[in-house]
Design a protein that fits this description.
The structure is a single chain. This protein is α+β, with helices and mostly antiparallel strands and 289 residues long. The chain has twelve helices and six strands. The chain has helices at 5-13, 20-33, 38-47, 51-78, 84-95, 101-118, 125-139, 157-163, 168-181, 230-240, 254-272, 275-288; strands spanning 143-144, 165-166, 186-189, 196-200, 215-220, 226-228. Strand 3 and strand 4 (196-200) form a beta hairpin.
Amino acid sequence: MNFDSNELNALIRLLDDSDHEVFEHIQDRIVHLGKEVIPFLENAWKSSMDVIMQQRIENIIHMIQLEDLRQEMRVWAHSGSQELIRGAMLIARYQYPDLEEETVQKQLDRLRKDAWLEMNDNLTALEQIRVLNKIFFDLYGFNGNTQHYHAPQNSFIHLVLESKKGNPLMLAILYLEVARSAGIPVYGVNLPEHFILCYKDELNEPVSAKDHSNILFYINPFSKGDIFNRKDIDSFLKQLKINPEKSYYEPCSNKEMIQRLIRNLMNSYNKLGYLDKVEELQLLMQATL
């Protein structure tokens, strides 16, 4: 968006206006100009000695970044949601707007390369997963964050790549990405209370909607890639007193995974009492619908 820098600087100087209505009008005009004005706002923040002025500038920058993120999330969700990692990085940018996505991709590339080098066409499905488990959990040291299960950092892709600790969903997203890059047909499964993965036999399609024979087994990334079957899901749902539904056994979409990632974050911030963040994440959720 084109804007007059002199007019923008004049607006920024008026941000310390004591009249709330005047301030809100100025704030709305600046936010409307979009992310191109952020460097001007940052310069104004550095040169200001007024704490209130600095706080107002910080809030405006956050509002601009949030609106920009909403637009990007909407585009991602409504253009096929093909890139799962892209969706995860958009969510990370909610809390870390200056996230260097290149760094994340480089870390993922190392993981992908190591997995790809270990795979060959002669491995059975179980052997493929054993090799992947060895790389992901033993070589790289990924693990479930059992001590701080509900902490927000478990939902941010770059932090999980650094700490090697995450919640079931983020570990599944990373595991899934590495598996797919190695040509392994692994998919996410939206199980209540616990996100898991399934391995599909893509050579043999099911003969009917009730036929689950093309799912060979399930994988639990939160417990170092443990393998289990449909009956184990039945038992898990029975313990939780949840009626079984088809979606609890079948692959879900990338969009559904990112929506669950947003819900996890909302739950984390709600537990910490950050209700303003919960409301903002609700806006991101709406952008995916």
